[in-house]
Specification:
Blueprint lengths: L2 H15 L14 H8 L4 E5 L2 E7 L7 E6 L5 E6 L3 H4 L9 H8 L4 E5 L4 E9 L5 E8 L5 E8 L9
Amino acid sequence: MSLTRILPLALALLAGCASYDGHGLVPGQSRMEDVQSLMGAPTAKVASGNDTLWFYSRNPSGFHSYAVRVGPDGVMRSVEQRLTVENMQKLRPGATTAGETRELLGPPWRVGSDARLGGESWDYRMYDSTQQEHNLSVQFGANGVVRQVVFLRELVNEPCGM
């Protein structure tokens, strides 16, 4: 078999081994080298107590952001999808800070500034509980505290009006 036929097959097999959701990692056993080998370089790293959260965001083209919790010993503690309705409901206007939001949801795919109110907004694409596509916009005041949470259904794939 020629190299031009073997190379695409080998690349396809290697791509099939990659896991963007951490499938195959074992909490308490997998090490950070295993995480990077399987999932690649993280989108962002966020300190969380003594641990570090490695975020693997699939936004804007996907609707997931996986957080891999790595302990100070370099051992993976957990992996979970963070863009969920349950996590969105933990955001409290007037109380949740930008740092807490980043630790909860991960990095936004788009950041906008609000010159009128002196804050910014962070956008995430995610599914609701029925797997409908939505845009979550978390709006912060100038003090870096959540001012408003807006969760709107995306109508990109909906049929046009009648």
